[in-house]
Amino acid sequence: MITEVVVALGFASDHRAVQLILDHVRVDHPNAGVGLALARSLPSGIERDTPCRDAVIEALITLTADENSDVRDWACLGLGLVEAAGADRDDGRRIPAYRADLPKVEDKAPPVVTDAIWWNQDPWAYPLEEMAQSYVLTYANETEER
User: Of 19, 31, 55, 132, which one has the fewest beta carbons inside 10 Å?
Assistant: First the structure.
């Protein structure tokens, strides 16, 4: 249940939802599914001036040391996303930062995200509903495989 709540809050793409995650879910949670959901959700809605940005970076750094390689990979991508989100949208750093981390998780990331990055577009410019739908399908497929 915790995993599903974290995923749902991540879809909000709002720093207030991320703050709720940080306030109520341990970053060192023993369940790998929760760790994966954290790594995927924490970067959501984080910009340069977001109040919880430093706490998100600290949490993602912690997750890069997780024993689960998927959690580590997504945490690394998340750090890249937070770094890129700290850049001005027009200064040319955002997309290259996304692309630098993409090979680590390309086979796991939703197609709408990877397609946007490879075509040099900001993946977060896509409608949230389309992205969430793709993410849910990807997550559901991974869960069925386990």
Answer: 31
User: Are the C-beta atoms of residues 36 and 74 closer than 8 Å to each other?
Assistant: yes
Read off the amino acid at residue 70. Answer: D
Q: Where are the domains of the chain?
A: 2-145
**Burial class of residue 43 in the structure, from the number of CB atoms within 10 Å of its CB (0-12 exposed, 13-18 middle, 19+ buried):** buried
pLDDT computed for residue 99 by the predictor: 63
Q: What is the pLDDT of residue 90?
A: 46
Measured distance CA(20)–CA(23) in Å, rounded: 5
| Mean model confidence pLDDT for the chain | 77
SS (H, E, C) the chain: CHHHHHHHHHHCCCHHHHHHHHHHCCCCCCCHHHHHHHHHHCCCCCCCCCCCHHHHHHHHHHHCCCCCHHHHHHHHHHHHHHHHHCCCCCCCCHHHHHHHHHHHHCCCCCHHHHHHHHCCCCHHHCCHHHHHHHHHHHHHHHHHHC
Residues in the chain where the model's pLDDT stays below 50: 90, 127-129
